[in-house]
Design goal:
18 strands; 4 domains; OB fold (Dihydrolipoamide Acetyltransferase, E2P); mainly beta; 3 helices
Length: 276
């Protein structure tokens, strides 16, 4: 069965001049947009994106858009109208976002994190920036400390909102952030706490002694690269520590503590020195 908004594997059914049609089964013949008879023969199997165009025709293209139905993605607004905005997504026909599906009025040239869904009214792929209504409301079954994939989609006074594994809502609190984050950024994080409201508290660095041992070695290597002395200690500002070592102050203190106990470093008021 052909899935609109997804990649489908379909055979070439007919070739007439520059027109190529694919066998869509119960959906009938599906024209391949932008095709030429020189490229394809009857029986060829193609991986194509199937969509509904402005004239309500089911079409296919070999070009894969930046987002498929049921996915989240960062896209840029390329035009606006009285009824909504249009986002560039790698196809000739731009992706429509109705005004009713916008948290704030979209502006041309600005990037937005959106969810692509199939409109029941138009049967066309449509986008929404109201992400939370498309996320899973069931209690997440993650483990504390589990690594997860994050997509940053919002910022507030508390911190950054993120889509967790494409399914749940998570929050990275400001006091857990020691690096630059941008809307639409994808990165790995870790589950810190599972909340009763089914949302997830996140952190960008893993905790535990295994992580500390790995970071301790990285810190040791960096101090060696700096000539055996660095002017950063456990009393330094969190931002300064992150700028040099790429870890939070809490993890840094544990790591250099482990190095100090092994008598590999000396911690002084003005810096850290390797033991000869």
């Amino acid at each position: 069965m052909v899935q609109v908004g997804k990649i489908n594997r379909l055979p070439v059914n007919s070739v007439h001049g520059h027109e190529v049609h694919l066998d869509g089964g119960k959906s009938g013949d599906i024209p391949l947009k932008g095709s030429t008879s020189r490229k394809y023969q009857i029986g060829d199997i193609l991986d194509v994106f199937v969509y509904v165009d402005r004239e309500q025709n089911v079409m296919a293209t070999i070009h894969k858009p930046y987002v498929l139905m049921g996915e989240f993605a960062k896209l840029t607004a390329v035009s606006t109208s009285k009824v909504g905005a249009f986002l560039g997504w790698g196809l000739e026909d731009d992706l429509f976002v109705p005004k009713s599906e916008q948290i704030n009025i979209m502006r041309v040239g600005q990037p937005y994190v959106v969810f692509a869904f199939l409109s029941e009214k138009t049967h066309r792929i449509t986008a929404s920036s109201k992400l939370e209504k498309f996320l899973n409301k069931r209690p997440p079954k993650y483990r504390v400390g589990e690594a997860v994939d994050l997509l940053i989609y919002g910022r507030s006074d508390l911190g950054y909102s993120a889509v967790v594994n494409g399914a749940h809502v998570g929050m990275i609190y400001n006091n857990e952030v020691f690096q630059k984050l941008e809307i639409g950024q994808k990165l790995q994080g870790y589950v810190k706490k599972l909340r009763e409201d089914s949302k997830i508290d996140l952190q960008l660095q893993q905790t535990g002694y295994q992580q500390v041992d790995e970071i301790s070695q990285n810190i040791l290597n960096l101090i060696k690269e700096k000539g055996g002395v660095v002017g950063v200690t456990d009393k330094s500002a969190p931002e300064e520590i992150y700028a040099m070592f790429g870890v939070s102050k809490k993890i840094f203190k544990k790591s250099i503590g482990a190095l100090y106990k092994k008598r590999l470093i000396v911690i002084e008021d003005n810096g850290i020195t390797l033991v000869d």
